[in-house]
Amino acid sequence: MPHAQSFAAIDLGSNSFRLEIGHFSHHHFQRVEYLKETVRQGGGLDAERYLSEEAMQRGWDCLARFGERLAGFPAAHVRAVATQTLREARNREAFVKRGSELLGYPIEIISGEEEARLIYRGVSSLLPPSDERRLVIDIGGRSTELVLGRQQEAQQALSLRLGSVAWSQRYFPEGELSRAAFSLAAVAARAVLDEALDIIHGGDWDTVYASSGTAAAIGDILAASGRTPGIIDLEGLEWLHDSLVRAQSTDQIRLAGLKEERRAVIAGGVSIMQALFDLLQLRSLRVAEGALRQGVLHTLVEQDPLCTDLRSAAVQGLMQKYCVDADQAQRVAGVARNLLEQLAPETSAEHHEPLRHAALLHEIGSHIAHSNYHRHGAYVLQNTSAAGFTQAERDLLAQLVCGQRGKLRKLEPEMLIEPRNVYPLLALRLAVLLCHARRPPELASLQIEADGPCFKLSAGNNWSATYPQSAFLLEEEQQAWLKTHWQLELNWN
Hints:
By secondary structure, this protein is of the alpha/beta class. Helix content is 45%, strand content 17%. A six-stranded mixed sheet has the order 8-7-6-9-11-10, sandwiched between helices.
């Protein structure tokens, strides 16, 4: 892979150092490599705010390893940013000078506000375009960022000096977990976070997202306990708090989903998250996929057309990567849209988008093998890093691509319950079928409508005689739907 097409972001956080390398090709972002080391540099600050020699050495050792990986990258394609610990450290210049030499690229200590804006950019870059008002929260090792914005633009950004490492050291020394310690930590966190209420008010957002290590760790634990993946809610947070108190100490914590590297700082992170839920009167939030390093990557490529329409760019990139027949893809997409407009004429263009993307990508699995290409395509979509698509949206695309042909019982049960899923699924299956000859089908005499759970497909005189293969395939399709709650009725002479 030529380095001229690769970009690297290095995030020197208070708990971990991270390196992410991204490859931009055909307007599509793809992760090439992600390295993370738990350095715990924030724990090496003494009372006078000097980094210990041990903490600096841990950081330098990590940067030397990152530097070997990045050797040969153009300077303009690499950006290394340091956050709260080095903002505070009085001997930061000594660390940065040696660290930059080992890394091979300059280390930039960014302000809290700059960090907040980069975090927002990273989170929003992996979300679909939307006019929703977003509140993004990031609980780091020694700072917490809160950002309000719309789409790619951060409108209000705030960085406060509290984090999982600092709070764990201060309020849970020696790893002791008591109800009194949690209460004291939450009160102290609310006192610091109270400043945020001057800028951020309840009702200023539609959706709340939380990014980075603390949010991901809490989300993983709650998901492992049987709760909804990707969601942190008040009930789950209270359960986690009680579980930690029952453990009494960090070395006694036995929670599925908790990584060993997070054990020492999970209590501080939970206490801050509880304070945020209390102050902002939150009931739940979503765990974001993006973070600071994605924001840094996008600053490196902000002139790239990718930044204007992430999802369209991602779809086009996948089509090119998997050598999709673009004419056939557009043909199927056009026919599918025609059918969906007949089935649900009131639906907005926004609801047509998943069908269009699935139609354009329905043959990506053929690049792997023609046999079962629909299953191969579904696997690719579930596991690819398609910028702009959430995991839920990738899952829907995968289900549509998997369901484009063959038996319907292979799909998730919810795909065959709601009309909002069934209509696009039927439209895609019929479009693939009607375009079997890889040329534009005759649609003028074909009409379809939904009558409750029955779909009625009508054709003009002699249609079945004129297009016998298409008629045969439609009759097979009719049989497939008989094994579901829905029916496909064929009316032709």
